[in-house]
Fold Amidohydrolase family protein.
Amino acid sequence: MQSFIDSLPLIDHHCHGVVARPLERPAFEALMSEGHKPVAGCTQFDKPLGLVLLRWCAPQLGLEPHAEPEAYLAARLALSPEEVTRRLAGATGVSRLLIDTGHRSDAILDPAAMENVTGIPAAEVVRIEAVMEEVARTGPADGAGLRKAFDDRIEERARGAVGLKSIVAYRTSFDIVQCPPTLAEVDAAGSRWLAALAAGRSRRLEDAILIRYALFRAGELCRTHRYPLQLHVGFGDADIRMPKCDPTVFTPFIAAMEEWDVPITLLHCYPFIREAAFLAEVFSNVYLDIGVIQNFTGPSAGRILAEAMELTPFYKQLYSSDAFGLAELHFLGARLFRNALAKVLDGWIAAGDATPAKAEAIARAIASENARRIYPIG
Ligand SMILES: [Zn+2]
């Protein structure tokens, strides 16, 4: 299966831009980590991601696999950032990048710039919490003004996007009331939050009432535009309160979106891969990927993909790299996914569970056909 899967175009339905400046070692290592504190005397290369990065990315920069980190970073610094991006993010066989622009967007390339440098067509997925924060900074008079400004802005942004995204799991966890709040509740919560922002007691949107409002508003827009709402699940940085980020905790909201025929794409899902697969089995609107965690588990990526494929219907699984900042993460996402998928399907063929023709159909579905069916990307 390997050569067939290596030739398949992929749709990366959840990723971010790369940093466009030369990266010295501390900045590079910071982008290899979800933690915020380096450990003195230790390196991010000393973990599974470090192994696969040096194995697979070093040859893209003209080095032998498993080059030393110093040699790798020196070779990287000898090239322009554009050339690094081209050799790594531009060499994935990805045919479309769906880029989440809501996280540190001033530090990374936007979709147009990513498309320019990599030559891969890019489209935008809009993060709803970032839009609420953006309109709060424009100085609405009160909660009602915030709500109206959000409605206008999210409607406008949604028109140019191919999907919306929420990081409710980060901000409140999934363990919140899951019906729409009343407008009076929203306006009161908005006024409270604006006052907290003005007093410096809040930096970002963490109010469950406002996030619930944004989620249902996003659901309506996704229904209108017939595209998915992406939900961050599980693995992420230290803000996550993991036990409450199990996606089955969000079942009432997922069920409400099923009523509206809005696809929900569960991102990352680790360690709740089985829970996410269960939701994909029982809800017609649920899809999932295991992006990011394939990169972070490196040599074990095959086992992680095999776990996702235990139960997930073949028409419900998607590919993503969830690469952020480093072009290496784009390259590795595709490489590890292709290797893992070939390994799982070869095993099924060898066991007599799938014919080669069926295995190829499964690979095509996960690589791009499922994403093409639910996102408006032609
Ligand atoms: Zn992401």
Notes: The chain has a mean pLDDT of 96.
